[in-house]
Request: fold
Amino acid sequence: MHTIYGDLDYVQGYLRMGHLEMELNDEDFEKFKSFELRDQKAWLREEGRVEIDDYSVNDIGDITEINY
Reply:
């Protein structure tokens, strides 16, 4: 199987939904669970990474380069 992709000069649209995600070892997970909700939120905002769950693409530009 071969993957071919074309670079676009732009993508226009908007993000619809997402979430923050982080991985914790067992010790940190127990510590996280012991925190109050306010502190859990702060930790997640500081250490978590944004994952996009849903988006909408309204328009795309011309293909500038094809790679394979």
About this structure: The two ends are 11 Å apart (CA to CA). The mean pLDDT is 95. The helical segments are 26-34, 37-47. Strands lie at 5-8, 11-21, 49-60, 63-67.
